[in-house]
Write a structure and sequence with these properties.
The complex is a heterotrimer. By secondary structure, chain A is mainly beta. Chain A has 2 helices and 29 strands. By secondary structure, chain B is of the alpha/beta class. Chain B has a 6-stranded mixed β-sheet, with helices on both faces. A 4-stranded antiparallel β-sheet of chain B has the order 11-12-10-13. Classes of the chains: A mainly beta, B alpha/beta, C mainly alpha.
């Protein structure tokens, strides 16, 4: 047991030697040299530098080796005017601590310098008073002015190119170059009609501000959506971040290229029509180009049930100007054995880089020829009856 | 009289190979009560159906009130009322409802209908039971209801097929009286029967049917004369003398037959009653009754069809 | 030969009289009571079933007629089974009854043609059927409004009325059939038995007969799928000889708007079809038009058969 404990004891001893040689060590002459006995008050870093105007803490420990339990009254000497301090043990403010043999108490010294404390080095002494001895640890606290805070904003790809219908997603990195945590407000200034939203990099939550810890950075995404009808061109978006004290800006560029956009429209806006089985019907479809560039080579195709004949005239529209429209006739012949009811026909318009499709609902009506045949059957029956009446009638 | 009510010439009806009516010639004048007499199956009903246009003649022509029943049956049926053999009614309807239905069918105008039905019901003495269901009617009441139908319809010609069959004597009498009274009001009546007494009592003229032919047509005495050859039949009841011996020698007496009840029937060429009475008295007998019956149709009927049977036997032999 | 006068004079009188007779006859009351009770039973069951299972349906009212709650069949199934019975009850003794009541010749002696009698009887039966079906339909609709708490929509009313017409045509077929039997058989009992036998054959056994005939006429070769198609088509063609099949198909297409085809449908015909989309009423009507016209034609032809038989008969009673 003792052999196992000795290295730690030795380390504590050496630090005790170094820090409290004058008092603590002198009083423990009766202890065997290789296993010192006594009560020590220690701290890991007795000389620290802290920022002006901020509270700070120091970790202390009270140790007892081979002595009966001892009550130690804690205090701090040499505290400048206006400073406040406090000991904490077990999470509560304490004034004294007690430690049994072979035991260690962890304590915290919390110090709040005066608000106007100058930036210099202050010497203080940590004092622990027991019944028959006095433990003291000199500590030095250097107050230093805070490092200048700064914010950095970087865009990974600051210039993007796309059509008016696409989303421009910029990856941004905000770095808090300061020793303190900050909350960064986000803002983007866009041309009118543009819509900009900040989001987490991997997430859909929209953000207006983001907390960043000291010296850390955060990746964000800025999504810019230009209005549908924006003319082609280069647009600038100013992104600003600020903590209230410091700001960072960066400029983003949207290079909006003109893009055709097709919108397919059924006959007089309807999405349905009717046709007789086995008979050709024609429906006028309208292809609108709502994009910012002419649509070229717009092909019209349709996917209909097998046995149906569908073609378009014209099958290909060479060009539709932006904002313009073109009409095409869909000639549809449902299969002659198609049964009555609703069928869905997928109509596609496909130009270079733009397409639109719609589900056209065709109500197939069966031919009334069979209806006529039924009438014919009734007609024959009536004729037979009429014949019988003329042959056998009036008796 | 003007045009005849019924005129038939060479009226023939064949069913396959059998001949129901064979070359019938008939002329019935207005106001007549005409009897069709013959055994069942002699063609009476078929003749009636042809008169009504309900059956097409195979050949020959008929005119009823000048209309051809074949071409214009509706005109004929409008004038003619028909009461079939064992007339039937809708049992679940009342007498009045039955008549109303017929009245509607015969096209009596609506405003006259109820009055005419009521009159007809009074006429046949059924007005008290007019709103009872026919289900409860006796046979005689049904026959009378049948006559009421003819009255309501205002038929100018009534064709009655076996009107008295199945009736008790009293009902028969009632019915015959009614029929006679219709005739008295100018309705022409054709009635068919196998009941000779009935025909004899009401009919002006009779057609004697045999095998689809009206063998004889005429008044009852005419026919009797033809069939019996003008013989008078005298019934005699006498005591104290043997009529057979006493009467037989009288000139003109053809046959003397003793009946079971003791009476004697004498067939004579003429009315020999004075001679016979004288002879009886002369023979010391006392005369209990002496009557001459008009030659009754019964005799005619029997003799007529006797002859037929004889002929058949001869044919068979 | 051209006869004078309107062939159908008096027809409406006869038709209304027949209708009135039916409405007051105990037999008809009994059959209608049966129909109404079963109708209520089936619709009551359907209401419970609808409330339990179907929340939203654009054709809730039609569901009322087609939903069955085990073990009670649906209203439509009941109607398919019982309507022939109603028709048979109406007509099985309509012609031979006149003979046996001995009213036939009396009626025909009125200024009408025979045509009017038979047409009138058929029409009278149809009037009765139409009124009863209409009443039944209104009852069901009223019951539906009460229990479902909403009025029927326009298409539902149109479909309901078309169904009514189909019911009438179906009942008309059986009415004509019963009328035919009543002219063929002089005994009402024989005619009733014949009609009921035919009813049983079509209502119960026809499926089996069609199946057996199909196996005999179009054997299935397992290696040749076309023989299977032929067999299925033949079986459905044979089944459609039965008016009951025609009626149930008609009812299915009219009352279940999702029905797109009756009979065999190939997969490729269903490609692209939007499942569950109801047909517009006009298309449903077009779908059942052959069935409906088949029933109407059958009704006319069977009636013509009855007509010819009747016109050729001798009227002697």
């Amino acid at each position: 047991m003792r052999t196992a404990f000795s290295p730690l004891g030795f380390v504590v001893l050496t630090s005790g030697l170094a820090l409290a040689a004058s008092g603590a060590f002198a009083d423990t002459t009766s202890s065997p040299p290789n296993s010192p006995t006594g009560v020590w008050l220690t701290t890991d870093y007795p000389a620290v530098t802290e920022q002006v105007g901020k509270s700070f803490t120091m970790d202390l420990s009270l140790e007892n080796h081979g002595m009966p339990p001892e009550r130690v009254q804690l205090s701090l000497d040499g505290v400048p005017e206006g400073w406040h301090y406090e000991f904490e043990g077990g999470g509560n403010p304490v004034k004294a601590a007690m430690v049994g043999p072979g035991d260690t108490r962890s304590l915290t010294l919390k110090m709040t310098p005066a608000s106007g404390a100058a930036a210099k080095t202050y010497a203080l002494t940590l004092v622990g008073e027991a019944d028959n001895q006095k433990l003291s640890v000199p500590i030095s606290v250097t107050l230093a002015p805070p490092a200048p805070a700064s914010l950095k904003l970087d865009a990974k790809l600051p210039a993007l190119r796309g059509s008016a219908s696409s989303n421009f997603d910029y990856d941004l990195t905000v770095k808090n170059d300061s020793p303190s945590d900050v909350t960064v407000n986000l803002a983007a200034q866009t041309p009118p009609g543009f819509d900009a939203t900040f989001k987490e990099q991997y997430g859909s939550q929209e953000l207006t501000s983001v907390p960043i810890k000291a010296n850390e950075s955060k990746d964000l995404k800025l999504s810019v959506k230009p209005p549908q009808d924006v003319p082609a061109g280069k647009y600038k978006v100013e992104v600003g971040t600020s903590t209230g004290k410091v700001q960072a800006e960066t400029a983003l560029l949207l290079d909006i290229t003109g893009q055709p956009k097709l919108a397919l429209e059924g006959p007089s806006g309807m999405l349905s029509g009717s046709a007789v089985a086995g008979k050709e019907h024609s429906f006028t479809f309208t292809v609108n180009n709502t994009g910012g560039a002419p649509a070229r080579d717009v092909k019209l195709t349709a996917d209909a049930p097998s046995g149906w004949k569908i073609d378009f005239s014209p099958a290909k529209i060479d060009q539709i100007a932006p904002g313009g429209k073109a009409e095409a006739q869909m000639r549809i012949t449902p299969a002659s054995n198609a049964i009555a009811g609703d069928y869905s026909v997928d109509v596609d318009s496909n130009g270079q880089g733009a397409s639109d499709n719609l589900k056209f609902r065709v109500t197939v009506e069966t031919s009334t020829e069979w209806g006529l045949a039924g009438l014919g059957i009734i007609g024959i029956a009536v004729l037979v009856m009429a014949g019988a009446v003329t042959r056998y009638g009036r008796r | 009289m003007s045009a005849p009510v019924v005129e038939a010439q060479g009226l023939t009806k064949r069913y396959g190979s059998t001949v129901a009516v064979n070359g019938l010639d008939l002329r019935i004048e207005a106001g007549e009560v005409f009897g069709l007499l013959g055994p069942n199956g002699s063609g009476k009903t078929t003749t009636i159906l042809m008169l009504l246009g309900l059956t097409e003649p195979s050949s020959g022509t008929v005119r009823v009130f000048g209309h051809d029943p074949l071409r214009d049956p509706l005109a004929v049926k409008r004038e003619v009322g028909y009461m079939p053999d064992a007339v039937g009614f809708y049992d679940q309807l009342t007498a009045r409802e039955n008549l109303r239905y017929i009245a509607k069918l015969s096209g009596i105008p609506e405003n006259e209908r109820e009055a005419r039905i009521e009159q007809a019901l009074i006429r046949v003495r059924l007005s008290k039971v007019a709103d009872r269901r026919v289900k409860t009617f006796s046979r005689g009441m049904r026959q009378r209801l049948g006559l009421a139908e003819l009255v309501a319809k205002g038929s100018r010609l009534a064709i009655l097929d076996e009107p008295t069959s199945g009736l008790d004597p009293q009902s028969t009498q009632e019915l015959l009286q009614l029929i006679s009274s219709f005739a008295g009001e100018g309705m022409t009546v054709i009635l068919s029967s196998h009941l000779l007494s009935m025909v004899q009592s009401v009919c002006d003229r009779v057609a004697l049917f045999r095998e689809g032919k009206a063998g004889l047509i005429g008044t009852v005495p005419d026919i009797a004369g033809k069939v019996l050859g003008g013989i008078c039949i005298i019934d005699l009841e006498a005591e104290g003398a043997d009529p057979e011996k006493v009467v037989a020698p009288i000139p003109g007496v053809r046959r003397v037959t003793r009946r079971k009840n003791g009476a004697v029937q004498i067939d004579a060429d003429g009315d020999l009653r004075p001679e016979i009475s004288r002879a009886i008295v002369a023979a010391g007998g006392s005369l209990k009754s002496l009557s001459m019956s008009q030659s009754s149709l019964d005799d005619v009927y029997v003799r007529y069809f006797e002859g037929e049977e004889n002929r058949e036997m001869a044919d068979a032999a | 030969m051209r006869r004078k006068g309107h062939a159908l004079a008096g027809m409406s009188t006869i038709a209304w009289k027949e209708a009135a007779d039916h409405f007051s006859s105990a037999r008809f009351h009994f059959v209608m009571l049966l129909v109404i009770l079963t109708a209520f039973g089936s619709v009551y069951g359907a209401i419970g079933e609808i409330k339990n299972t179907i929340g939203q349906d654009p054709f809730l009212f039609l569901r009322l007629l087609t939903t069955a709650k085990d073990p009670v069949p649906s209203f439509v199934a009941f109607l398919g089974f019982l309507l022939p019975l109603v028709s048979i009850a109406l007509a099985f003794d309509s012609v031979n009854g006149e003979y046996s009541r001995r009213t036939m010749s009396r009626i025909l002696a009125q200024p009408i043609y025979r045509d009017a009698l038979l047409f009138g009887k058929f029409l009278g039966g149809m009037i009765v059927l139409a009124l009863c079906l209409l009443t039944l339909w209104l009852l069901m609709t009223g019951l539906g409004i009460l229990t479902l708490g909403l009025p029927p929509s326009g298409p539902e009313i149109a479909r309901g009325l078309a169904f009514l017409v189909a019911c009438l045509a179906y009942a008309g077929v059986w009415l004509a059939m019963a009328l035919l039997f009543s002219t063929i058989f002089r005994q009402a009992a024989t005619s009733a038995l014949a009609a009921l036998a035919l009813w049983l054959v079509f209502a119960i056994f026809w499926g089996m007969i069609a199946h057996a005939l199909t196996i005999a006429l179009a054997p299935i070769d397992p290696t040749n799928p076309m023989t299977l198609v032929n067999a299925v088509e033949m079986q459905s063609a044979l089944a459609r000889i039965s008016p009951n099949t025609l009626f149930s198909e008609t009812a299915q297409a009219l009352l279940n708007p999702q029905t797109r085809a009756l009979g065999l449908v190939f997969m490729d015909q269903m490609e692209g079809a939007i499942p569950g989309a109801p047909l517009p009423f006009s298309q449903s009507a077009l779908l059942i038009w052959p069935q409906l016209s088949g029933m109407v034609a059958a009704m006319l032809l069977i009636f013509t058969g009855a007509y010819v038989t009747f016109q050729r008969q001798e009227v002697r009673a």
